[in-house]
């Protein structure tokens, strides 16, 4: 955060977070000097007000997630008698305006069971091949800004990144993270895949202007998955009898995401 702050205020000597290490213990403080306002008469310290705002924000987020999980549990109770309601509920979470974290969780749950139906044969010797279903793993938390990759597939070793932007710079940054290793992007958009590819390519050429550079990045985009494709794969999961599994996965991943224990 200090480094990010310096990008926008390079001449300011103050930093927002003060760190002190003592006997292998690290303590952190917010620099209150950055929270002092001068109204012309008095110096106002707004730190207490900011803490109240943060606590209210946390409470609002907790209430929203608790309501969401209650809705999930409600769907779970009626899943055996009203699968249409469960279907409508899950597809509603694939909306362009849904919370980014929920979109990532639902995308993972759908893709996990979609790829679970696909088998591959691999091995180190021609006459000793292993039959194995594809397994998708979720890595880390959503929107963690930890520089990681969102999903990883075994045994193929595919990388997946979830994004809600069509800005090519975000795609190229993720590709650089893994030294141009092929990545599949799950994009929170209804834009047609061919149009999305053209938009990324057009904007990249405008900025870089060098075909060789842009082509190197574009070759690293293994696949683009948009909302219509997710809906299509969800429908295939429903046909294969995975709708309740997907609902359970959404509940599990949501509890992990928001530190909610059973």
Structure description:
With 262 residues, this protein is of the alpha+beta class. The protein folds into two domains: 2-40, no CATH class; 55-257, no CATH class. It has helices at 2-8, 47-78, 83-92, 100-115, 168-177, 193-208, 211-218, 227-239, 243-257, and strands at residues 17-22, 25-30, 36-38, 43-45, 119-125, 128-133, 135-138, 151-154, 159-163, 183-187, 221-225. Strands 7-8-9-10-11 form a five-stranded mixed β-sheet, sandwiched between helices. Helix 5 links the parallel strand 9 and strand 10 (183-187). Helix 2 (47-78) runs antiparallel to helix 9, helix 4 (100-115) packs across helix 8 and helix 4 (100-115) crosses helix 9 (243-257). The longest helix has 32 residues, at 47-78.
